[in-house]
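To the wet lab folks,

You asked to see what we're planning to order before we commit. Fair enough. Below is the target structure as tokens, and below that is the sequence we designed to fit it. If anything looks off to you, flag it before the synthesis order goes out.
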């Protein structure tokens, strides 16, 4: 009987270590919309796709400077659908280029302006993932977040979806006849590759697959293809969880001691501290590489 119990415990441990869970987050909302979709259409499409594919809740990290009437309408669309609205600063500054005092003011202004939304949550995503290029700036923001009851909304899964969006919008503007099925395949393939890469890195350095946080942006390709991405994730054994569930993982408590001018995300931080020097950014995080693939797989199909 004891051997049976030990076997069950071993199998349970293996299962838990291999469990694949992922929360979806969108940066820069309400992001400029003047291409394939207008802003309200993008918001409605994105909400509809999330609902259709049974994604309970995502987080929109929002820039309060963009809260004109149309921007407010868009964030209300997300909030009223049950999704989280959180802080991504007022003007999306680069912390490497700003003093702690000025950056703090920008963060606090967004805190005030974003609390008008019913589903506002005190999570803060650093623009460009840059958390301070000096110890004074890094520690100053950590203290400020703690003082105002915020969690650092780190990411574990990095990618260049914003550049894929740029390639797509430029192709639309130039009048290319885009095969949307090919475009979807291109988008999903690249994201899956980076997701699995960082999960393998996590398992190497943590010995398990953590509750992951996927960085995406509030863009037209997100609204068009998020459903296809979710379907592929589930085919590959991923369970979509809420941001609150993701930030309950033990790595939420992790704080890197060294100052990082450029941050690859929480998994990259842990890998770096553990001695990994190369490959902290996946190969897909390269603009020239993405452009070459886009021309081969989408435009010249």
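Sequence we intend to order:
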């Amino acid at each position: 009987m004891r051997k049976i119990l030990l076997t069950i415990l071993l199998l349970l441990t293996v299962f838990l270590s291999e469990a694949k869970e992922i929360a979806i987050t969108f940066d820069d909302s309400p992001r400029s919309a003047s291409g394939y979709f207008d802003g309200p259409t993008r918001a409605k499409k994105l909400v509809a796709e999330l609902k259709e594919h049974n994604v309970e809740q995502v987080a929109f990290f929002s820039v309060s400077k963009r809260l004109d009437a149309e921007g407010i309408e868009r964030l209300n669309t997300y909030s009223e659908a049950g999704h989280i609205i959180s802080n991504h600063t007022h003007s999306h500054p680069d912390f490497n280029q700003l003093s702690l005092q000025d950056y703090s003011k920008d963060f606090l202004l967004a805190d005030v302006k974003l609390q008008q939304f019913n589903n506002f949550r005190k999570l803060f995503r650093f623009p460009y993932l840059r958390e301070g290029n000096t110890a004074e700036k890094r520690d100053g923001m950590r203290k400020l977040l703690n003082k105002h009851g915020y969690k650092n909304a780190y990411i574990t899964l990095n990618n260049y979806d914003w550049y894929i969006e740029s390639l797509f919008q430029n192709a639309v503007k130039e009048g290319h006849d885009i095969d949307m099925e090919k475009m979807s395949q291109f988008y999903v393939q690249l994201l899956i590759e980076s997701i699995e890469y960082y999960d393998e890195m996590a398992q190497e350095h943590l010995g398990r697959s953590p509750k992951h946080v996927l960085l995406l942006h509030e863009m037209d390709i997100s609204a068009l293809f998020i459903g296809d991405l979710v379907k592929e994730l589930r085919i590959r054994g991923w369970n979509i969880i809420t941001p609150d569930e993701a930030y309950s993982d033990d790595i939420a408590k992790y704080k890197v001691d060294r100052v990082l001018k450029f941050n690859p995300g929480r998994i990259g931080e842990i890998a770096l501290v553990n001695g990994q020097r190369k490959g902290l950014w996946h190969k897909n995080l390269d603009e020239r590489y993405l452009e070459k693939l886009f021309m081969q797989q989408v435009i010249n199909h």
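Structural context that might help your review: Confidence is low (pLDDT under 50) at residues 4-17. The longest helix spans residues 180-206.

Thanks,
Computational group
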